[in-house]
Amino acid sequence: MSESTDTSVTVIGAGIVGICCACYLQRSGFQVTLVDREEPGMQTSFGNAGGISPGSVAPIGMPGMWQQIPGWLVDDNGPLFIKARHFPKALPWLMRFISQSRRSRVLEISRALTALNGPTFAAYQPLLEEADITGLFHKTGQLFVYHTRQNMEKDTFTRELRSASGASVEYLDSKSIQEIEPALAPIFEAGYLMPDNGHCKDPLGLAQALAQMFVDKGGRLLKTE
Asked: What positions does the domain FAD dependent oxidoreductase occupy (predicted)?
């Protein structure tokens, strides 16, 4: 069987992920068509906070979290609330969530997140330079604060996962927190800074600029269902 010589690719979805995929495929020599029913960036890429967190390597489900689920379910203001009539339908999902929260599974997920999120800034850089929009990104760090040192120590496993990923973590006392962010009320005893995290100040502008660059370089943008 001979190898295909077709160099045309269609990318479905003109959010930031689809746009970046299209740009990288184009840079690799493919003829690319980018398809979406909306204008580039106008759905999930529009209006979000634009956080860029290479050190976000801890999943939502963590070991021991299952012990908190019963209390959450009866708390209208808790992080997990399911109406009683929906509980039977949600139960299989809850069981899968608990299963994925095992320590061994969390370690696997964390390694996958490290591979996915770790190179984020480096992966964006060539596209930002080519589109001349490097000013949209700011690596200002991300601050995590706790009312008490004991509360921070309860979060040890999350911090271990971040350290294992190679993410830079700087531990802080109350004085250091105030020096970094004086607008915070002086009620936090401990915290840590992840200096390599940052944000995009205009996620929609980023998507639109990269989509325009893609079109200018010969890419095809198709607005259709």
From this structure: 9-222
